[in-house]
Write a structure and sequence with these properties.
Largest sheet: 6 strands, mixed
Structural class: mainly beta
Shape: globular
Distance between the termini: 27 Å
Number of strands: 13
Number of helices: 4
Number of domains: 1
Strand content: 25-35%
CATH topology: Fumarylacetoacetate hydrolase, domain 2
Mean pLDDT: 95
CATH class: Alpha Beta
Length: 203
């Protein structure tokens, strides 16, 4: 199982971090050890003083595929979810400044929250999904999949050129604007439309 993550997929988020708009999807991986175990709190790692939440719509792959055409991509997933790509922003900035990979800032233990899964048939249009993150009951991130630079099926087409997709793989499709620091005792809740898909505590 692998976690395939897409960076810089929402224009407003690109602007808030003062990044350059990409011409192709920005892709990075997280190992399965990054998955936060169910009912466990998220522990801020000792090597960072600036861990940010990044809420994202998730897709779970349900069949093996390689070089998948966009028009067939919908056949490779049946469930949609929501999660958090936790990022050690201070460490990421150091790595980026040196032109080094991001994995230490993105793929550490517990850095990937995967909430509950819902059948994609529950939604009328996967390219028009509202989703949000609440921190201590205040909405801090809001997004809509219609604002993605690359939609779900386009992402599947693109990443399958480079990686064989296998059953159980999870794609993190990118975060909207509003990312921010978490501190101990924060409570984070994620929603697609009006459905709560995860609730975690920060330690």
């Amino acid at each position: 199982m692998k976690l395939i993550c897409i960076g810089r997929n929402y224009t407003d988020h690109i602007k808030e971090l003062e990044n350059e708009k990409p011409t192709d999807p920005v892709v990075f991986l997280k190992p399965d050890t990054a998955i936060l175990l169910k009912k466990q709190p998220f522990f801020i790692p000792e090597f960072s003083n600036d861990v940010h939440h990044e809420v994202e719509v998730l897709v779970k792959i349900n069949r093996v595929g390689k070089y998948i055409d966009k028009k067939f991509a919908h056949k490779y997933y049946s469930e949609i979810g929501l999660g958090i790509d936790f990022t050690a922003r201070d460490l990421q900035a150091q790595l980026k400044a040196k032109g080094l990979p991001w994995e230490k800032a993105k793929a550490f233990d517990g850095a990937a929250v995967i909430g509950n899964w819902l059948p994609k048939e529950d939604f009328k249009d996967l390219n028009n999904l509202d989703f949000s993150l609440k921190k201590n009951e205040e909405v801090v991130q809001q997004g809509n999949t219609g604002l993605m630079l690359w939609k779900i099926d386009e992402i599947i087409e693109y990443v399958s050129k480079y990686f064989t997709l296998k059953i159980g793989d999870v794609i993190f499709t990118g975060t909207p604007a509003g990312v921010g620091k978490v501190i101990a005792n924060d409570k984070l809740k994620g929603y697609i439309e009006d459905k709560q898909l995860f609730s975690i505590t920060v330690k």
